[in-house]
From TrEMBL:
Entry protein name: Formamidopyrimidine-DNA glycosylase
Any GO MF annotation of the entry: oxidized purine nucleobase lesion DNA N-glycosylase activity
Reactions catalysed, as given in the entry: Hydrolysis of DNA containing ring-opened 7-methylguanine residues, releasing 2,6-diamino-4-hydroxy-5-(N-methyl)formamidopyrimidine; 2'-deoxyribonucleotide-(2'-deoxyribose 5'-phosphate)-2'-deoxyribonucleotide-DNA = a 3'-end 2'-deoxyribonucleotide-(2,3-dehydro-2,3-deoxyribose 5'-phosphate)-DNA + a 5'-end 5'-phospho-2'-deoxyribonucleoside-DNA + H(+)
Annotated ranges, domain FPG-type: 235-269
Keyword Cell membrane: no
The keyword Lyase belongs to this UniProt entry's keyword annotation: yes
Formamidopyrimidine-DNA glycosylase catalytic domain mapped to chain residues: 2-106
Organism of derivation: Metabacillus halosaccharovorans
Quaternary structure and partners: Monomer.
Designated gene of the protein: mutM
Family: Belongs to the FPG family.
Gene3D superfamilies from the UniProt entry: 1.10.8.50, MutM-like, N-terminal
Annotated signal peptide: none
Pfam families per record: Fapy_DNA_glyco, H2TH, zf-FPG_IleRS
EC number of the protein: 3.2.2.23, 4.2.99.18
Length: 269
């Protein structure tokens, strides 16, 4: 499932290539991917200008000049691609937005969705989300106070969207590795030094994910050579049996809080 770096990567590319353009036509091939009857959805989206794109946690919000907001969550398997009728992934598209000179394909929205909402409805959807870890307002003191009250594993805490927004299975393991902490450690049992280490690791790893374009393998558009590069730079995630990049101990995989987790049993404590 795409996490904060992947969705932020999409946002940055879309801001450059799509914002300011008008949606000339809309095609919906799977009605369950949207929240309105297909004719009503098309009627409200077609002809509107895309004025801004925002990210919150693992969501994107496409803001239209009508005041409508297209709220996207890709969930598991969702992808997007900017192309045209001659440059189109050989995949089933659930929704296609055609602009003046390109098309935006929404692919793999079997579990994901693209909902047309008002500003107030979008705000309601985000009420339970935790803080954005890359926002300037996300400070160590606030994180420290919240983490001291968490009795779950670091794995379950980091992927809890109510505790902190945008982190999932992949980056939670990378963050624990960076902080030299085992993902099965318990939040309220960490020392103040360990909590600080985890806080800084969150920002380091998420920014690293952004630098390398996240881990989604399919490029966002023709000529995109950045997206997916993080797969080449992962420390531990999906590296079972490989040597730890820090101490050369073999990386292992375990189920922690019902989620697959990868870590080094030697230099993570």
């Amino acid at each position: 499932m795409p996490e904060l770096p992947e969705m932020e990567n999409y946002k940055r590319i879309f801001e450059k290539k799509l914002v300011g353009k008008t949606i000339q036509s809309v095609e919906v091939t799977r009605e369950k991917s949207i929240n309105k009857a297909v004719p009503a959805f098309i009627d409200e989206v077609k002809g509107r200008k895309l004025v801004a794109i925002e990210r919150r946690a693992k969501h994107l919000v496409f803001k239209l000049d009508s005041g409508g907001h297209l709220l996207l969550h890709l969930m598991l398997g969702g992808l997007m691609y900017i192309g045209n009728e001659h440059d189109s992934p050989d995949r089933t598209k659930q929704v296609t937005l055609t602009f003046d000179d390109c098309q935006l394909f929404f692919i793999g929205l079997r579990l994901g969705y693209l909902h047309l909402l008002t500003c107030q409805e979008v705000e309601q959807e985000f009420l339970d989300l935790g803080p954005e870890p890359l926002d300037p307002g996300f400070q160590l003191s606030k994180f420290d106070e919240r983490l001291k009250k968490k009795r779950g594993t670091l794995k379950s805490t980091l992927v809890n969207q109510k505790f902190i927004a945008g982190i999932g299975n992949h980056y939670s393991d990378e963050i624990c590795f960076e902080a030299k902490l085992l993902p099965m450690r318990i939040g309220d049992e960490l020392s103040s030094r360990e909590r600080a280490s985890l806080f800084h690791a969150i920002q380091t790893i998420l920014n690293r994910g952004l630098t390398y374009g996240g881990y989604i393998e399919m490029p966002v558009c023709k000529g995109d050579e950045l997206t997916g590069k993080y797969n080449e730079y992962c420390y531990v995630y999906d590296r079972e049996g490989e040597p730890c990049p820090r101490c050369k101990t073999t990386i292992i995989r375990e189920e922690i809080s019902s989620k697959k987790s990868f870590f080094c049993p030697q230099c993570q404590i």
